[in-house]
Amino acid sequence: MTTTTVANVLRSDYQKSVASYWNNEKDPVNLLLGDVDGLYHHHYGIGDYDRSVLEGPEDTRDDRIITEMHRLETAQAKILLDHFGDISPADRLLDAGCGRGGTSFMAHQRFGCQMDGVSISEQQVEFANDQARQRGVADKVRFHFRNMLDTGFETGSHRGIWNNESTMYVDLFQLFAEFSRLLEYGGRYVCITGCYNDVTGGRSKAVSRIDEHYICNIHPRSDYFKALAANNLVPIDVIDLTSHTIPYWELRAKSSVATGIEDPFLTAYREGSFHYLLIAADRV
Prior knowledge:
- By secondary structure, the protein is of the alpha/beta class.
- The protein has a single domain, classed as Rossmann fold (3-Layer(aba) Sandwich), CATH 3.40.50.
- It has eleven helices and seven strands.
- It has a seven-stranded mixed β-sheet, with helices on both faces.
- Helix 7 links the parallel strand 4 (158-164) and strand 5 (183-196).
- The chain is globular.
- The two termini are 26 Å apart.
- The model has no long low-confidence stretch (mean pLDDT 95).
């Protein structure tokens, strides 16, 4: 690959603005939750929450909520990794849009395989590589300042690739073309993503507020399947997680790390204009 520089990684003003956002992001909703056990996620949670966290001493109530939210986020990552099936220590996986590396470390712990993570945020990459050194796995888990649309990795070099809530920052056809190139024949792609409902006819007001908040571009549900089909990626599992993520947002709205975006998420999910999907597809 050409020497990695900001100029050849960030190829548009939009990408520069996204990178700047994440380079400067120090949101407690990501950092405080990661401090619970050292796994720093940049995604949301699934599953019902334990109502007892809202009871008990008031002075420790928020700590209980933070710990429970982190449990739900980790549960989401476990569901994503479940869909890779049998991965051997000799295999290689790619975390595209890796954030601070939480899911990558979970994958290495589960499979013992080589992990690559890529992000256009230099700060995220630095943080994640520091975590890898602290964990003593820097020889197997590496994070790279690279663009997921043009990673520079060898053709057919990866057994599996995932996006965990990062597809809304890129063109899906370009993204899946790159992943189709990277995956070996029979390799698996998995994503968990929010997408707007084509049936309701375009982005709702609530979905547009989410786009504005995160400087992203949420795709219609149909675009995922069009782009997968165009790039030799055949879905084997499609799971609607929408009802399973609503409790996470209800709990987050009661926490000290609420940002104000909780209401648009809950409105969009409840009105049916926004879906939370897991898609697993095989490279053919």
